[in-house]
């Protein structure tokens, strides 16, 4: 088994009826996912995506990635939210957080257009000096301000550097198949385009061109990634909760929520997982945090954060449960050697590798935290490779849909994201927002 879910460490916090009582809801949510009859059912394209995707486009993605790998020193991936987190998370999961320094001939990859910081954008531009640059602009709507501003800057940069024609050969555009400002611009300029399917929302889009092109450009095997996800399509489609780890996980999240836990802390012991946690937070936060409901998704990387957040988790307000992702094997390791004088007192670790010590840190922590009243769920992954990543991505996506339906929300919309945008546009003087501008300025003036 490549991914295994264990709730043994949480058993003291749950009663048999907690899961039994959710069986009917799980079955009904399973049926509405499969029959596409629930809230947000227009956005269920991710469910069968790993077994039913556009093979021609997939081949074009691999070809474009190959071209990028041959003619590019720096790939700039422009996108925000679901249009960048999955790709960045996957690259770090597979290649490690130091990918850009250890990339072994592959292009450096920087993610831009995911903030409105001029200083950040200026730094990324500086990194490009003297390098061969390509850009992958990703925006499903094609109108999101952050990536649109960054793309305007990089488009000018590439056109000045290479001229319009060569710049167009170095710009790859991932967006809607027909609609939006970006698609229009791409058609005018002749950029190669990849599609974000209509029925796949941003935070569920990592296994479309949104994630696949940057992931392939980093040298990862996207065939294996899809194969791993395809395994998960069957593995996590059993309506019987007792035989479906993904549904047990989703149900337990809801059981804890009903018992007053308001925070789910995603924990890992590998820095390469930190961006996966960011992807996870968007997936669950944007899917469930609505109608005044939802678990707040947070994350920590141990043992690093045991030295900053460990005190609170062990001993602070009892608002959380932990979901811990562990790896059974790592791709690299270091053995701690014997030292003759044992000046640092570490000879009791001699001959052990660091993953063994890391395992003991996990075991010690899981016991301490459950003693401290924090239920722990554990997801163990065999090793950080493409197949396991594909399965893990799908596991979380399916659990998120199931969990959202049990909670009684539409897991596929994000109405709350619009509010800040309207205010920002009004304050910036975007045409059409004149009335709001005056009102907001009065309110700001009072503070
Ligand atoms: O999950 C989502 O829908 C969002 O995070 C979007 O991906 C994000 O807002 C970016 O939108 P777009 O791809 O339209 O630029």
Walkthrough of the structure:
It is a single chain. This protein has 447 residues and is an alpha/beta fold. The mean pLDDT is 96. Helix 11 crosses helix 16, helix 12 crosses helix 16 and helix 13 packs parallel to helix 16. Strand 5, helix 9 and strand 6 form a beta-alpha-beta unit. Helix content is 48%, strand content 13%. Bound molecules: 5-phosphoarabinonic acid (PA5). The site of 5-phosphoarabinonic acid has 14 residues, from loops.
What is this structure's SSE topology?
Blueprint: E1 3-6, H1 16-20, H2 23-34, H3 55-71, E2 74-78, H4 85-95, H5 99-102, E3 108-112, H6 118-128, E4 133-139, H7 145-162, H8 164-169, E5 171-175, H9 181-189, E6 192-195, H10 209-217, H11 222-235, H12 245-258, E7 263-268, H13 274-288, E8 296-301, H14 310-315, E9 320-327, H15 354-371, E10 376-381, H16 386-407, H17 418-428, H18 434-445
Parallel strand pairs: 2-3, 2-4, 4-5, 5-6, 7-8, 7-9, 9-10
Antiparallel strand pairs: 1-10
Bound molecules: 5-phosphoarabinonic acid.
What order do the strands of the largest sheet run in, or round the barrel if closed? 1-10-9-7-8
- Radius of gyration equals 23 Å
Estimated structural class: alpha/beta
Q: What hetero molecules are bound to the protein chains?
A: 5-phosphoarabinonic acid
* Helical residue percent band: 40-55%
Estimate the mean pLDDT confidence. 96
What would a concise description of this structure say?
With 447 residues, the protein is α/β, with parallel strands linked by helices.
Features:
single chain; 447 residues; alpha/beta; 5-stranded mixed β-sheet; 5-stranded parallel β-sheet; 13% strand; globular; binds 5-phosphoarabinonic acid
């Amino acid at each position: 088994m490549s991914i295994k879910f264990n709730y043994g460490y949480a058993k003291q916090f749950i009663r048999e009826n907690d899961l039994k009582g959710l069986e009917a809801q799980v079955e009904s949510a399973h049926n509405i996912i499969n029959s596409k009859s629930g809230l947000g059912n227009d956005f269920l394209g991710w469910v069968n995506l790993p077994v039913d995707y556009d093979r021609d486009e997939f081949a074009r993605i691999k070809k474009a990635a190959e071209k990028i790998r041959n003619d590019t020193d720096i790939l700039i991936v422009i996108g925000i939210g679901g249009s960048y987190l999955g790709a960045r998370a996957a690259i770090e999961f597979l290649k490690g957080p130091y990918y850009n320094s250890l990339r072994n001939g592959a292009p450096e990859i920087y993610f831009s257009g995911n903030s409105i910081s001029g200083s950040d954008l200026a730094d990324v531009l500086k990194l490009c000096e003297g390098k061969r640059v390509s850009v992958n602009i990703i925006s499903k709507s094609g109108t999101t301000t952050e990536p649109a501003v960054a793309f305007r800057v990089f488009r000018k940069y590439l056109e000045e550097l290479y001229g319009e024609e060569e710049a167009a050969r170095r710009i790859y555009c991932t967006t809607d198949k027909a609609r939006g400002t970006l698609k229009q611009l791409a058609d005018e300029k002749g950029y190669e385009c990849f599609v974000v399917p209509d029925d796949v929302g941003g935070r569920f889009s990592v296994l479309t061109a949104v994630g696949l092109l940057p992931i392939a450009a980093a040298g990862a095997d996207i065939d294996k990634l899809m194969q791993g996800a395809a395994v998960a399509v069957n593995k996590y489609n059993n309506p019987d909760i007792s035989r479906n780890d993904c549904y047990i996980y989703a149900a337990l999240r809801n059981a804890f929520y009903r018992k007053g836990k308001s925070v789910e802390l995603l924990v890992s012991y590998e820095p390469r997982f930190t961006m996966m946690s960011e992807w996870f937070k968007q997936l669950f936060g944007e899917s469930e945090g609505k109608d005044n409901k939802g678990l707040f998704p947070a994350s920590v990387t141990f043992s690093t954060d045991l030295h900053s957040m460990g005190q609170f988790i062990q001993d602070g307000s009892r608002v959380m449960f932990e979901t811990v992702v562990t790896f059974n094997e790592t791709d690299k390791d270091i053995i701690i050697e014997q030292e003759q004088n044992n000046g640092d007192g570490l000879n009791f670790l001699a001959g052990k590798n660091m993953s063994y010590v890391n395992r003991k840190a996990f075991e010690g922590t899981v016991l301490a935290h459950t003693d401290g009243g924090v239920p722990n769920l554990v997801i163990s992954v065999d090793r950080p490779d493409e197949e396991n990543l594909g399965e893990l991505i799908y596991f979380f996506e399916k659990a998120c849909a199931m969990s959202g339906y049990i909670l009684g929300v539409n897991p596929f919309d994000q109405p709350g994201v619009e509010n800040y945008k309207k205010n920002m546009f009004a304050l910036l003087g975007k045409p059409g927002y004149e009335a709001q501008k005056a009102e907001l300025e009065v309110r700001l003036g009072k503070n």
